[in-house]
Amino acid sequence: MADLTTPPAAPLFDASGVSLGSVDLAPEVFGIEPNIPVMHQVVTAQLAGARRGTHSTKTRSHRRGGGRKPWRQKGLGRARHGSIRAPQWRGGGIAHGPHPRDYSQRTPKKMKRLALRSALSARASESAVKVVDRFDWESPKTKHAVSLLRAMGVEGKALVVLGREDDAAAKSFANLPEVVLAHPGGFTTYDVLWASTVVFTSETLAAAVGTTNGDAGDEDFVKETDEGAEA
Q1: Which one of 57, 82, 87, 128 is at 20 to 30 Å from 68 when CA atoms are compared?
Q2: Is the dihedral of CA 60, 63, 67, 71 positive or negative?
Q3: Does pLDDT of 224 surpass 50?
Q4: For 6-16, how does the pLDDT look when each residue is reduced to its tens digit (9 = 90+)?
Q5: 57 and 99 in contact (C-beta within 8 Å)?
Q6: Full residue range of the structural domain in which residue 81 is found
Q7: CA 90 to chain centre
Q8: Is-contact 2 122, C-beta < 8 A?
């Protein structure tokens, strides 16, 4: 849970990983109490929307053959059958199998904003939000990105939010398998929860605050109380 008693802050670094102090984070985005049920619903909807839904199985009507009764109804001592393309036959159709469908779910914009702010607040409370003043790398080099992450103490998966003009930085991070790149307004609740650390620049931090700070409050959606009931 986010610490609501002290203003949220994040360490500030330069492009080489030297500490420049700290920067204050917007409390309305990085300092709220995370709403876990809303985050769960939004992430579930996002993962459902990512499903292609192209799975398909053949029913007995799609199978060839089976136009005549395999044997007469009575007198042979065998079970009754009407078609060799029934589900219980080898080569027959599939009963109740999956068919193409749309898995997308409708999610209100206010709920998406609250879930994203909850995820950012959760990461900020864990000291997992870091800020780079600006990237002044003249040419893209993967070793620059690796040394910067190591200097900032970033371990594991990381979400790096870059500006449109940070081409050298984007190419430097592109070859790292545990780094996901995004632009302000282009990352989701799942992206934040997937990453162990979220890295902003001073520019993208301000832009992200503007895109995530909606007018939705925590009281607008279902929230679990301490007793486990829904309020």
Answers
A1: 57
A2: negative
A3: no
A4: 778 999 999 99
A5: yes
A6: 57-97
A7: 41
A8: yes
- Whether the CB-CB separation of 197 and 159 falls below 8 Å is answered with yes
- Six-digit token pair at 115? 């879930």
Task: Residue 154: count other Cβ atoms within 10 Å of its Cβ.
Answer: 21
Q: How many domains does the chain have?
A: 2
Q: In terms of C-beta density within 10 A (0-12 exposed, 13-18 middle, 19 or more buried), how is residue 21 classed? A: exposed
Question: Is residue 2 situated within a structural domain?
Answer: no
Q: Is 70 exceeded by the pLDDT of residue 68?
A: yes
User: At which residue do the structure tokens 């009764």 appear?
Assistant: 69
Residue 2 has pLDDT above 70, yes or no: no
Transcribe 84-109 into DSSP letters: TTSTTSTT-PPTT------------H
Give the integer Cα–Cα distance in Å for 160 and 195.
9
% of the chain exceeding 90 in pLDDT: 79
Report the mean per-residue pLDDT for the chain. Answer: 88
* pLDDT score recorded for residue 211: 79
CB 11 within 8 A of CB 194: no
- CA dist., res. 5 & res. 136, Å (int): 36
Task: Supply the CATH number for residue 149's domain.
Answer: 3.40.1370.10
CA dist., res. 218 & res. 28, Å (int): 11
